[in-house]
């Protein structure tokens, strides 16, 4: 019988399939099949060795790799006070919309396009009209900012959530988790949410610049391709 290889005190057996993830953190599995023939464990079939190599990438990672890299976004800012001052602004710069500007810059820096922008007041019908127009456009993803709090005027979730054909609860959960370090237990005040409407993902974010930066840079932009791929299947 050939000599068996001990790696970090662990002799590879069929358990490699279950233990690949923790091992891969410190080793490159691609080198595993590169050992001299006499040093391979004869009890492990070539197919198992190959499986360990390919299993280093999870299904989500494979989907992301194959997904489209650039997307068109629609941005809708909800703010009565800003709308009263700037009216039907056609860009974040024109509305002095810091959150809208931050989103646009982050998206474009990542190679995406902002093809739609709308500033609306905290009013259900006006917001729904903007959502409908955005969904009818060539955009891939719609993002709203503002109106997700607990004040009586905050109507974004009440207006948009009933339209969700499918909810994406993990978004709100992850966003609040990531916000803990920045705002502590105040995260319970935000009702950030997401879902699918007419085959497009819609994200409803708080209106603060820090909140939209966090949501886009750490969740939406990294997952955009994965989300759009699944929504369109």
Overall geometry comes to globular
Topology order in helix (H) and strand (E) letters: HHHEHHEHEHEHEEH
Secondary structure class reads alpha/beta
Task: Estimate what percentage of residues fall within beta strands.
Answer: 5-15%
User: What's the CATH superfamily of the largest domain, by name?
Assistant: MoaB/Mog-like domain
Give the CATH level 1 class of the largest domain: Alpha Beta
Number of strands: 6
Mean pLDDT figure: 82
Computed over alpha carbons, the radius of gyration is: 24 Å
| Fold-level CATH name of the largest domain | Molybdenum Cofactor Biosythetic Enzyme, Chain A
Number of domains: 2
Describe this structure in words.
- This protein has 233 residues and is an alpha/beta fold.
- It folds into 2 domains: 1-56, no CATH class; 65-231, MoaB/Mog-like domain (Molybdenum Cofactor Biosythetic Enzyme, Chain A, 3-Layer(aba) Sandwich).
- The chain has 9 helices and 6 strands, in the order αααβααβαβαβαββα.
- Strand 5 (193-197) and strand 6 (200-205) form a beta hairpin.
- Helix 5 crosses helix 9 (209-231) and helix 8 (169-183) packs antiparallel against helix 9 (209-231).
- The model is unreliable at 1-25, 29-40 and 47-55 (pLDDT under 50).
Compact overview of the structure:
This protein is of the alpha/beta class and 233 residues long. The protein is built from nine helices and six strands; from the N terminus they run αααβααβαβαβαββα.
Give me the secondary-structure topology:
Elements: H1 16-24, H2 46-54, H3 59-66, E1 72-78, H4 80-86, H5 98-109, E2 113-120, H6 124-136, E3 141-145, H7 156-160, E4 166-167, H8 169-183, E5 193-197, E6 200-205, H9 209-231
Parallel strand pairs: 1-2, 1-3, 3-6
Antiparallel strand pairs: 4-5, 5-6
Helix pairs in contact: 5-9, 8-9
């Amino acid at each position: 019988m050939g000599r068996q290889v001990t790696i970090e005190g662990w002799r590879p057996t069929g358990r490699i399939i279950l233990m690949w993830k923790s091992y891969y953190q410190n080793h490159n599995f691609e080198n595993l099949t590169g050992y001299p023939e006499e040093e391979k464990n004869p009890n492990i079939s070539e197919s198992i060795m190959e499986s360990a190599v390919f299993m280093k990438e999870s299904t989500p990672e494979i989907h992301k790799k194959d997904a489209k890299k650039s997307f068109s976004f629609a941005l809708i800012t909800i703010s009565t006070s800003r709308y009263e001052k700037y009216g039907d602004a056609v860009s974040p710069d024109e509305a002095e919309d810091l959150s809208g500007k931050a989103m646009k810059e982050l998206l474009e820096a990542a190679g995406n396009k902002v093809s739609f922008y709308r500033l609306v007041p905290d009013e259900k019908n006006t917001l729904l009209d903007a959502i409908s127009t955005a969904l009818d456009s060539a955009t891939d993803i719609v993002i709203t900012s503002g109106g997700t709090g607990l004040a009586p005027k905050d109507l974004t979730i009440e207006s948009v959530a009933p339209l969700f054909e499918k909810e994406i609860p993990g978004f709100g959960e992850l966003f609040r988790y990531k916000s803990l370090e920045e705002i502590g237990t105040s995260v319970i005040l935000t009702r950030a949410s997401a879902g699918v409407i007419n085959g497009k993902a819609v994200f409803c974010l708080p209106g603060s610049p820090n909140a939209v930066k966090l949501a886009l840079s750490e969740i939406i932009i990294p997952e955009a391709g994965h989300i759009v791929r699944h929504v369109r299947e």
